[in-house]
C-alpha cells in the first residue's frame, strides 16, 4: 500500500508570484476563476499555469475545424446561421499594419548604408503610369538587377491609387495560384479565423480592387491566367527572372525588361557604398567588373563591401606597424598592404567576403547553407549559434550583399549558396540541420508563440524538417503542424504532415503516423478531395485500432462519416421520374403489370379517388424501380437455362403495349426449345463432316483404283478391300483430311489386305519412291487392271527386300461402301 494514499498532494510553488486573480487570464483570454483551486494552501499563492495546448477553432467552408494538437483535429458541419457572410475589409490603419508586417523586420546593430535607386527613373514612371490605368505588368530582370528595390519605389508612388491600397505578396515557392489567392484574401479582409472554400474565395477576391506587387514570381502559363481571371479588379506588377515560365498570349500583360547599369551609375553606386571617391586603379577595376557582371547592381554592392573590408584592414595594419607581432595571436597578421581583389574574386566574392566577417556571421552562413539558403529570424540566431550577440550578424551580412530580402524574411543572395558550398561551408550541413530542427521543435510547441509567427518561419521550418533525422523530424512535424493549421497556411501544413508521416514510418512511431494520416484526411476533406480524405482516414483508423486508441478512432470515424455524407450529396442525381395520375379502377380489377421498357412510379392510392395528384401532395419517398430480367420460376439446371433470356437466339419483337396477363412460358417448354436450338448446330456439323469424308473416300478410290497397283508375286490381279481404310487419303495425313485438288498429283497410297494396315512400316525397310503419274481428268475412270503387273521403280535404289508372297486370290468387284456417321465424325463401312 502506498504510504501517501489518503494524503494531500504536495503543492508546486512558483518562483514568480502570479498576477492577482482579478487580472489573471487564461490562454483563451477569459478571466480566471476567483475561487482557490483544489488542493491550494491558504496564504500561499497559486502555482503559475503551465503551457496550455493551443486549441483553435476555424471556419473552413461548410465545416467547423477545431485544431487540437493533442488528439488530432476535429471537424463537424457548420451550424446553421453561423458564418457565410463576407467579413469587412481593412481600414487605413489595418492596411498600414499589414504593410509593415509584409516588410522585412528591423535588424539590430549598425544600420546598413541606404543605396540610391539609380538609372531607373524611366522604368519607374512607366510602371506607375500603367498601374494607374489598371494595366498589369510583368517586370523581367536577372537575379541581382534590383527588382525588389524598384518595387519598393513603385509601392510608395501608388499608395493612394486603389481603394484597397497596395498589397505586397511573395511568390517564392508557389507554383499554383490557390495559396496566393488565400494570401490576398487574408491581406484585404479581416478574417483571422476563417478560410473560405474555393467558391467563396473566388466570389470575395473578385471584389478586391488593389495594386498587387508580387515579387519572385515562379509560375506562368495557365496558373498565371487563373490568378489574373480570379481578380479582374486588381492591377498586378509581377517581378520574375528570365527563366520563369512565360505567360500565355491571352494574358495581355505589359512586358518591361530590367537590364544592368551603365558605367557612370556603377561607379556612383560603388562610391556610395564605400563612402569615398575611387582611385584611378579602383576605377579601372570597376570598369572591368562592370563588363564581367553586365552591370548588375548586386555585384557592385558586394564589390563595395570588398573595398570597405580592404580599407579597414589596411588602416589596422598601418597602425600596428610599430608593434611587434604577437606570438599568442590566434591568426597571423595580414600584410601591411592588401591589394585590390582580382576580377575572378570580384565576380564571385562570397568566399572572400565570408572570410572577413565575424565568427557569428560565418556561423549564420553555415546554418543558411544547411537550410537550403533560408536564414532563420535574427531572434533565433543566439540560440542556434551560441552567441548572445549573434543577432547583429544579419545586418553585417546584409551590408555585404550576401543576403537579400524575400517577403518578410531574408535568404542568401543569388549564387552565394553555391559559392559558399564550394568553399566548405556545407560540410557540417547535417549537424546544423539537426540543431535547427530541435530548436524549432521546442519553439513551435511553446504556448507563447502565436501561429502567425510560426507561419512567418515556414520556409526555415520546412528546410530544417527536410534535413533532420527521423526522430527530430517526427517531433518537429508534430509540433509545427497544428501551428500551420491555425495560421491558415495550409500548403505548409500539408507539406509538414507528409514529411512527418514518412519520418514516423521510418522511425516506427505508429501513434504519430496515425495522427499524421488523420490530419491529412481532415485537410483533404476541407479542400473537397473526398477520395484522398477517405484513404487517409481509413489508414488512420486502422492504425489507431491496432493501438486501441478509442478517442482517436472515434474522431476518425466521425470525419469518415462526413466523407460518406459528402460523397452521397455529390453523386449526380438521376433525372426525375415521370409521375402519372393513378387510374381509378374497381377493386376486383387486377393491377396491370409494368413492362421493363416503361418504368414508372406507382403512387399510393389517395384518400379521395377523385382528388388530382399534384407535385406538392407527393411527400412519401419512393424507391426507384429497377428492371429485372424475367427468369422462370423453376430453378435452372443447365447453363442454357440460365442465359436463355439474357442472350436469346431469336430476336423477339418488343410488345407495343403491356398485356394485362402476359403468358410466361413453362420451364419444360423453355428447356425443350433450348435443346432443339442446341441440336441444330450439332446436326449441321455432323452432316458437314460426313460430306467431307465421303468426298475424300471417293476421290481416293478413284485415283488409287488401278493406276499403279501393287500385285503380289504369283497373283493375277490386284488385291481389293471391301472396307475403306483411313490410309485412303493423302499421304502423311489422317483419313478425315479433305481430298487433294483434282488438278494436282497425289502420291501413291500403299494398299494391302493384311490385318496390319494401320501399323506404320518398319523403319529398317527402305522407303519406296512415289511414282509420278500423269494428271487425269475428274471424269476419267482408270482401268481395273494393268497389263504390266510388275512395274519397275522409276529410280534405282538399294537392293529392296522382295515382298512376302501371298496366295493368289480372285479379284472381286469392289462394293460401293455405305458410309455412316460415327460418333467421332469419321467415315466407316457397314
* Strand neighbour order, sheet with most strands: 5-7-8-4-9
List how many beta strands DSSP finds.
14
Helix content: 25-40%
Q: What class, by secondary structure content?
A: alpha/beta
Strand percent estimate: 5-15%
Alpha carbon gyration radius: 49 Å
- Unreliable segments of 5+ consecutive residues: 1-52, 317-322, 326-331, 572-580, 582-633, 654-663, 706-761, 769-812, 814-830
- What gross morphology would you assign? globular
Mean pLDDT: 73
Distance between the termini: 108 Å
Tell me what the structure shows.
The chain is an alpha/beta fold and 830 residues long. 38% of the residues lie in helices and 7% in strands. The chain has 25 helices and 14 strands. The strands form four sheets. Strands 5-7-8-4-9 form a five-stranded parallel beta sheet, with helices on both faces. Strands 3-2-1-6 form a four-stranded mixed beta sheet. Strands 10-12-11 form a three-stranded antiparallel beta sheet. Strand 2 (63-67) and strand 3 form a beta hairpin. The protein starts with 55 loop residues before the first strand and ends with a strand. The N terminus and C terminus are likely disordered.
Topology summary:
Elements: E1 56-60, E2 63-67, E3 74-77, H1 92-102, H2 121-132, E4 137-140, H3 147-157, E5 166-170, H4 177-188, E6 194-195, H5 198-205, E7 211-215, H6 222-230, E8 235-240, E9 254-257, H7 263-274, H8 280-293, H9 297-319, H10 343-347, H11 350-355, H12 359-370, E10 374-375, H13 381-385, H14 393-399, E11 403-406, E12 409-412, H15 416-422, H16 429-444, H17 451-456, H18 458-467, H19 470-486, H20 490-507, H21 510-526, H22 530-546, H23 550-570, H24 639-642, H25 667-703, E13 820-821, E14 827-828
Parallel strand pairs: 1-6, 4-8, 4-9, 5-7, 7-8
Antiparallel strand pairs: 1-2, 2-3, 10-12, 11-12, 13-14
Helix pairs in contact: 2-3, 4-5, 4-6, 7-8, 7-9, 12-16, 16-18, 16-19, 18-19, 18-20, 19-20, 20-21, 21-22, 21-23, 22-23
Amino acid at each position: 500500500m502506498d504510504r501517501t494514499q489518503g494524503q494531500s498532494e504536495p503543492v508546486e510553488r512558483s518562483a514568480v508570484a502570479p498576477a492577482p486573480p482579478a487580472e489573471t487570464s487564461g490562454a483563451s483570454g477569459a478571466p480566471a476563476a476567483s475561487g482557490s483551486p483544489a488542493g491550494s494552501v491558504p496564504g500561499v499563492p497559486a502555482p503559475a499555469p503551465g503551457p496550455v495546448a493551443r486549441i483553435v477553432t476555424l471556419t473552413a467552408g461548410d465545416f467547423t475545424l477545431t485544431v487540437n494538437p493533442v488528439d488530432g483535429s476535429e471537424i463537424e458541419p457548420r451550424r446553421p446561421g453561423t458564418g457565410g457572410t463576407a467579413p469587412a475589409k481593412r481600414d487605413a490603419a489595418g492596411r498600414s499594419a499589414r504593410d509593415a508586417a509584409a516588410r522585412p523586420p528591423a535588424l539590430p546593430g549598425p544600420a546598413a548604408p541606404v543605396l540610391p535607386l539609380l538609372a531607373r527613373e524611366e522604368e519607374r514612371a512607366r510602371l506607375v503610369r500603367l498601374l494607374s490605368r489598371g494595366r498589369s505588368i510583368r517586370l523581367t530582370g536577372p537575379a541581382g538587377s534590383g527588382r525588389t528595390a524598384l518595387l519598393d519605389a513603385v509601392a510608395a508612388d501608388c499608395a493612394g491609387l486603389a481603394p484597397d491600397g497596395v498589397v505586397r505578396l511573395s511568390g517564392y515557392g508557389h507554383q499554383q495560384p490557390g495559396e496566393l489567392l488565400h494570401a490576398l484574401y487574408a491581406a484585404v479582409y479581416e478574417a483571422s479565423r476563417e478560410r473560405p472554400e474555393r467558391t467563396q474565395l473566388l466570389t470575395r477576391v473578385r471584389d478586391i480592387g488593389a495594386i498587387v506587387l508580387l515579387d519572385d514570381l515562379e509560375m506562368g502559363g495557365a496558373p498565371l491566367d487563373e490568378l489574373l481571371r480570379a481578380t479582374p479588379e486588381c492591377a498586378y506588377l509581377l517581378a520574375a527572372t528570365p527563366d520563369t515560365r512565360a505567360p500565355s498570349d491571352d494574358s495581355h500583360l505589359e512586358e518591361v525588361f530590367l537590364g544592368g547599369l551603365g558605367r557612370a551609375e556603377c561607379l556612383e553606386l560603388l562610391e556610395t557604398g564605400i563612402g569615398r571617391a575611387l582611385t584611378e586603379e579602383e576605377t579601372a577595376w570597376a570598369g572591368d567588373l562592370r563588363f564581367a557582371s553586365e552591370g548588375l547592381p548586386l555585384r557592385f554592392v558586394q564589390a563595395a563591401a570588398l573595398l570597405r573590408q580592404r580599407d579597414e584592414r589596411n588602416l589596422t595594419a598601418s597602425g600596428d606597424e610599430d608593434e611587434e607581432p604577437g606570438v599568442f595571436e590566434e591568426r597571423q597578421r595580414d600584410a601591411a598592404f592588401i591589394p585590390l581583389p582580382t576580377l575572378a574574386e570580384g565576380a564571385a566574392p562570397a568566399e572572400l567576403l565570408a572570410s572577413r566577417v565575424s565568427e557569428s556571421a560565418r556561423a549564420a552562413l553555415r546554418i543558411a547553407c544547411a537550410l537550403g539558403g533560408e536564414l532563420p529570424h535574427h531572434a533565433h540566431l543566439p540560440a542556434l549559434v551560441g552567441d548572445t550577440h549573434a543577432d547583429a550578424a544579419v545586418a553585417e551580412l546584409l551590408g555585404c550583399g550576401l543576403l537579400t530580402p524575400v517577403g518578410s524574411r531574408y535568404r542568401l543572395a543569388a549564387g552565394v549558396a553555391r559559392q559558399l558550398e564550394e568553399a566548405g561551408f556545407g560540410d557540417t550541413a547535417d549537424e546544423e540541420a539537426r540543431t535547427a530542427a530541435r530548436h524549432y521543435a521546442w519553439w513551435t510547441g511553446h504556448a507563447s508563440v502565436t501561429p502567425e509567427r510560426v507561419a512567418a518561419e515556414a520556409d526555415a521550418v520546412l528546410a530544417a524538417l527536410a534535413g533532420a533525422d527521423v526522430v527530430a523530424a517526427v517531433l518537429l512535424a508534430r509540433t509545427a503542424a497544428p501551428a500551420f493549421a491555425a495560421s491558415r497556411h495550409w500548403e505548409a501544413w500539408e507539406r509538414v504532415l507528409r514529411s512527418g508521416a514518412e519520418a514516423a514510418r521510418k522511425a516506427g512511431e505508429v501513434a504519430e503516423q496515425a495522427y499524421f494520416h488523420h490530419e491529412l484526411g481532415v485537410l483533404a476533406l476541407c479542400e473537397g478531395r473526398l477520395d484522398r480524405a477517405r484513404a487517409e482516414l481509413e489508414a488512420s483508423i486502422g492504425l489507431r485500432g491496432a493501438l486501441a486508441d478509442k478517442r482517436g478512432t472515434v474522431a476518425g470515424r466521425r470525419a469518415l462519416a462526413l466523407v460518406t455524407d459528402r460523397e452521397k450529396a455529390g453523386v449526380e442525381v438521376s433525372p426525375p421520374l415521370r409521375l402519372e395520375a393513378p387510374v381509378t379502377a374497381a377493386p376486383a380489377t387486377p393491377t396491370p403489370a409494368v413492362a421493363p421498357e416503361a418504368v414508372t412510379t406507382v403512387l399510393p392510392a389517395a384518400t379521395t379517388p377523385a382528388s388530382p395528384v399534384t407535385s406538392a401532395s407527393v411527400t412519401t419517398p419512393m424507391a426507384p424501380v429497377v428492371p429485372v430480367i424475367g427468369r422462370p420460376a423453376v430453378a435452372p439446371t443447365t447453363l442454357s437455362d440460365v442465359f436463355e433470356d439474357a442472350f436469346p437466339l431469336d430476336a423477339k419483337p418488343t410488345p407495343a403495349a403491356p398485356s394485362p396477363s402476359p403468358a410466361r412460358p413453362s420451364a419444360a417448354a423453355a428447356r425443350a426449345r433450348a435443346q432443339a436450338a442446341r441440336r441444330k448446330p450439332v446436326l449441321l456439323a455432323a452432316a458437314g463432316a460426313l460430306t467431307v469424308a465421303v468426298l475424300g473416300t471417293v476421290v481416293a478410290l478413284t485415283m488409287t483404283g488401278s493406276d499403279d497397283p501393287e500385285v503380289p508375286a504369283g497373283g493375277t490381279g490386284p488385291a481389293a478391300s471391301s472396307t475403306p481404310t483411313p490410309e485412303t487419303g493423302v499421304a502423311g495425313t489422317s483419313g478425315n483430311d479433305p481430298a487433294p485438288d483434282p488438278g494436282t498429283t497425289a502420291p501413291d497410297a500403299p494398299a494391302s489386305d493384311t490385318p496390319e494396315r494401320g501399323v506404320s512400316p518398319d523403319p529398317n525397310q527402305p522407303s519406296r519412291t512415289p511414282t509420278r503419274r500423269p494428271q487425269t481428268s475428274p471424269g476419267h475412270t482408270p482401268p481395273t487392271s494393268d497389263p504390266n503387273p510388275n512395274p519397275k521403280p522409276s529410280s534405282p535404289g538399294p537392293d529392296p527386300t522382295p515382298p512376302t508372297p501371298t496366295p493368289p486370290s480372285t479379284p472381286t468387284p469392289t462394293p460401293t461402301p455405305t458410309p455412316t456417321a460415327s460418333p467421332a465424325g469419321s467415315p466407316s463401312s457397314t
